[in-house]
Write a structure and sequence with these properties.
Length: 156
Amino acid sequence: MPADNLSSLASLALAGSLAMERFVTIVKTTLPWLSEEKTTLLGDVTTRSDRTRRTIVQAIALAGSVATSMLVGTGNIWYEKSIPLSNGDGLPWWLYALMISGGSAVWTSVVQFASSAKDVQAQQKQTLQRDAKSDSPAVPPAPWVQRAAPATVREL
C-alpha cells in the first residue's frame, strides 16, 4: 500500500472512530441507563450483570459505524460500496465499519504504542550519542581482544 493510501486511510479511520465515539456518547447521554455501570456494594464493576448493557452499547456502536461507512462509501449497491482512498483505490465499506466501530479506545492504544516506540528510539539515539562522545566503546571488546592486548603491550 503506497504511503498516500496509508495516510488517507489513517485519516479516515481516525475521523470515523472519533465520530463513532461521539455518537455513542450522545446515545448514552440520551439514554442514561446505558452509561451507568452495575457495581457491587464495594463499588467494583460486576461484569456478569453488566454484560447486557455493554452488549447494547457495542451493538449501537456497530450499527452507527455501518451507517457511517454506508454514507461515506461510493457505489450503487450496498455490497459494492467502498471507501475511496487517495489514488483511486477503495476499501470495502464493511472493513471500514469494523475499523471505526471500536471508537477512540482502539486508536488511543495505537497512539500509545507509537509514542512508546518513539521514546525507546529516542533513548537509544541518546545512548549511542553519549557512547560516541566518551572514550569507552558502546560494546565491550570481545574476550580474544582483551587477552591479546597485554601481549602486544609487552612486545613494545
